[in-house]
Amino acid sequence: MVETRDKRVSYYLLLLPALVIYLSVIIFPIGLSGVLSFTRWRNFVLTGFVGFDNYLVILRDPEFHRALWNNVQIMLTSVFGQIPLGVLLAYLLFRKLVRGTRFFEMVIFLPITISAVVVALLWNRIFSPVGLYTNMVRVLTGNPDYVVRIFENQDWAMVPILVVLLWMHTSLYMVMFLANMQRIPSSTIEAAKLDGAGEFTILTRVVVPSLANVLFISSIFAISGSFKSFDLVFAMTGGGPVNYTSVMSIYLYRHTFTFNNFGYGSAVSVIMVVISVGLITLTRWIYGRVQKKYD
Amino acid sequence: MKRLVRPGSFPVVFLACFLLLAPSLLQAGGQKEDDGRVVLTTYLQKDPANPQFEGHNAVMEAFAEAHPHITFRHEYATGEAFHQKFQAMAASGRLPDLFTTYVGKRTAYITETGRVLDLRPYLEQEFLDGFTPAAWEPQGPEGEIYTVPPSMAVCHVMYANTAIMDELGLTFPETYQELLDQVETIRRAGYYPISLGNRDQWPMNSWLLSVLVDRLGGQEWFHDAMSGQAAFTDRPFVRSLEIIQEMVAKNVFSPGVNQMSNPEANQEFYQGRSVYLIDAGWRTSAMTNILDIPQQEAIYLGTFPRVDGSVRHGSSAAVPSEGFGLNVNLPQDPRKLEAALEFIRFYKGPQGAAIRLQHGEVPSYTLDYDDFDLPLLQRAYAEFQVNTPMGYVIDAKMDGEGMGILNPAIQAMMFGDLSPLQVARSYEEWVAANDSSRVGN
Amino acid sequence: MKPMNQNMSRGWRLFAYVFLFAFTAITLFPLIWMLYSSFKLQGEIMLYPLGWPRNPTVKNYHDAWRMGNMGVAAINSVIYTGFGTFFTVFFSLAAGFSLTKFGYSSSRVYFGVFTLGLLITVNAVITPLFIMQTRIGLYDTRIGVIIPYIAFGLPMAVLLACSYIRGIPDSLVEAAVIDGATYVQVFFRIIVVVASPVMATIAVLTFLRNWNEFILVFILTSGESMRSLPVAINSFAGRLNVNYGMQFAALVIGTIPMIVFYIGAHNLLISGFGEGALKE
Questions:
Q1: Contact C237 B282 (CB under 8 A)
Q2: Which percentage of chain C shows pLDDT scores above 90?
Q3: Do B415 and A124 touch (CB under 8 A)?
Q4: Which of A18, A163, B310, C75 is the most exposed place for a label (fewest CB within 10 A)?
């Protein structure tokens, strides 16, 4: 009896500091966003209640559709690019398949320390019309009008950003996976090796199943992070040319802070949350199915 | 199962860090106010660390020396972030005493919402007369003056590299057709005709489209278009877009014009790879810093050549620069108000203008340039301002959100995805339904 | 069986080296470029953006340090990041323990509430946050920055902590409770020790996030005495004439502490693995 009371008190004692701080900061802004998403603003002054108008306009806006599609591309890159690559890199380092693991671990980690501004500036120094790569091609091919055309192509303009994202953020996942791989008892891996399993088998049969939980958590991070991504896209292209590389958070930023329509921006953020919740619920469902299968 | 009792070193290190940092938390932010002084709080879109603002810094120093009883508590910000915070301030009603305001639409959330003081009752006519007349375009429905513009932002100059022109035997084109005819000569010699960095989407609009529309339509047409008596689907606007489209089709711009940022376009021109550069007038100060004297001597400041069917010629486009607005509540504290007005008179008037002129700016307050020893290009820029008729800049007159429709559409047109008429239609449609000049606030 | 195994290993190794060296080259290039560009003046950067400095100078560092007031900014960054990270790690670990090892059904709800926090964009809530802080007097205080840092750091940290602690055998906790320890004691004596790898992970990720954070500090404080490094660095990215040289110098100053922190945390991470881990 006493134990259960102590247990419940302890439960709240441990939980509340995090919960209280988190909610005290988040609740008011979230609530306000929710309410404001039904209002119209002009010059950052409230001008009236418009019901679901903001939502209807956003959902019909072709620019929003493009932004959403671009976010989906980022999400696919994160979930099916960064996470598998992160597992692979963590595995190489965990199994010490190369010399100098500490050096490489450091190097893989480095990209997230580089400011998005530097990445964007350097990218342009190389690939812009006055950049190094562009000029080399001009000289080599004798075509003075050469520019990198995919930047101007509706369907391909996102690809350079996706490549840079893959390079920059894979380390995030590598760090998490590496920490969790340390929990796998070395005896398990030795046993698998004695059974004649190769590295690939060890990776897929022993290591990945033991990471199931953290893979699930990573997918949640990847999905939510993808739908919020802003800094790198903003620094690299600002959403342009035209709006080929616009993403939802740039769309939100422009409508809120450049066009001064606070209500419209709030509605965008509500839509972003709803989409993410849907996708995370889906991920959870898939995870549940997979877990059941393994059990 | 056994657990190792040895504590991980991680928590220990963390605790040590925490103890080390704890005292610093007790330090309070902000500075204390001295008694007997007037303290003005500011929020300025300035970057004191940037060489561009040397003039600003020098004026601030001179003012502090002349008025030791007035002190400032500055807050600086740049770029988009400036507006983001300014809007938060406006929404919470916590504005400082003095802040950056634009004459155009960019700070409409402050200037059109009754948060800034009309300076007309406080400034003497004699002071106002000292400025170039162009500085005094109406800032509100009643001719209010919220901002005294420290200078004019000239948004269109067609710079020419005369060294290359001499080499190719070219002269600055008189007509648009002549410019088109030069393209082949220029390109055959391995140069690009015109550099313009339109990556950020607004330069083509501010630096070229505005001038073309002004030349083809004139002031009256534009006022009609604003009020709805004319439309942006009319000939002046559509023809201007057609010219831009034609220039793309005929290779007048260097390749990748929509991929090139402003500094990159400048770089192309500075490196002598293009003959012309279309850019803003204030670029002269950067050229003075970066180029050596022979290079500077080779630069000529002209305007876009004559266009068939235009109602005015040789004009550029300008908008009064951003200056300082005062908090509308400032008159409640007469000492603060007097200090702030004194600052504005000093900064914008003859003393401040002279200092700023010596640091590369061309102030809107009229000065006799012969009294100063000015760098070559600054002198040229000052003369350009005196001798060139100035039209409007579209994005200073129309709502920013509409520019979010127009500017990407211009890029799409340059890629061949939209026709000039389609661009004009989509913009007109937005303006008719939303722009504050048509539908009011 | 054995030779095939070795071949496969060799293939893996080759692939690993090629991949890692390519990655290394791509990664080190921007850093080295940033480093040597910081010794060039503006004109040289404009005209020869990729060239090696012709007249190397430390003027950028000198100017950036003085004009950007970077000494103060560095101290502020350490304070914001240090406190933000410490409390995020500590609170998230406690919450992670309570949400995974107590078996209450309400845990699922709280877990969901924290997950929701991952979806909030700072730009969407920054204006309400500013209004709230000016009303209750937290605006322009250090605590007014640190509390949002913790709050925005917690969702990710709690999820990570939960996923790790869930994997710690229940028997470990139960045994201690049967021995007469309270749950709070279990947390401090067992969980904190056993979970040190995930603590290090959370610490590294939270530190990075806080160290690079710009918008919260910028909006929620005013004036130089409260600025952090990213806000100071941003002041070199002016609108009209970007001074790249000074910006690079400032970025170098801002990047080094992150790398140092990672090296330090990395050592702890490894020692955590080696000695604090569970043994059968």
A1: no
A2: 31
A3: no
A4: A163
- Judge: A21–C17 Cβ closer than 8 Å, yes or no: no
**What would the mean pLDDT of A168-191 be, rounded to a whole number?**
85
Average pLDDT over residues B413-439: 94
Q: What is the interface pTM, i.e. ipTM, of the complex?
A: 0.87
CA distances from residue B377 to B24, B173, B383, C24, C253 in whole angstroms, order as listed: 50, 21, 10, 46, 36
Q: Give A-chain residues touching C260 at CB under 8 angstroms.
A: none
Spell out which chain A residues touch chain B, with contact meaning CB-CB distance below 8 angstroms. 42-45, 47, 124, 128-130, 134, 144-148, 151-152, 154, 238, 240-243, 253-255, 257-262
Q: Residue B64 carries which side chain, given as an amino acid letter?
A: A
**Considering chain B, what is the average pLDDT of its residues?**
90
Considering the entire predicted model, what is its pTM?
Answer: 0.89
Nearest to residue C157, comparing CAs of C195, C126, C131? C195
Looking at the structure, give the CATH architecture of the domain made up of residues A55-112+160-294: Orthogonal Bundle (1.10)
Other Cβ atoms closer than 10 A to B13: 15
Q: Does B401 touch chain A (CB under 8 A)?
A: yes
| Domain count for chain C | 1
Residues in chain B: 441
C20 found inside a domain: no
Rounded distance between C-alpha atoms, residue C131 and residue C220, angstroms: 10
Tell me the sheet residues that pair with B316: B390
**Could you tell me if B30 lies within 8 Å of chain C, comparing CB atoms?**
yes
* Model pLDDT, residue B20: 55
Tens digit of each residue's pLDDT (9 = 90 or more) over A69-122: 999 999 999 999 999 999 998 998 888 888 888 888 888 888 888 878 778 878
* CA-based nearest residue to C94, from C186, C14, C10: C186
Report, in angstroms and rounded to the nearest whole number, the Rg of chain B calculated over CA atoms: 25
Nearest CA distance, A228 vs chain C (angstrom): 6
Domains of chain B and any CATH numbers? 38-151+321-366 (3.40.190.10), 154-317+392-439 (3.40.190.10)
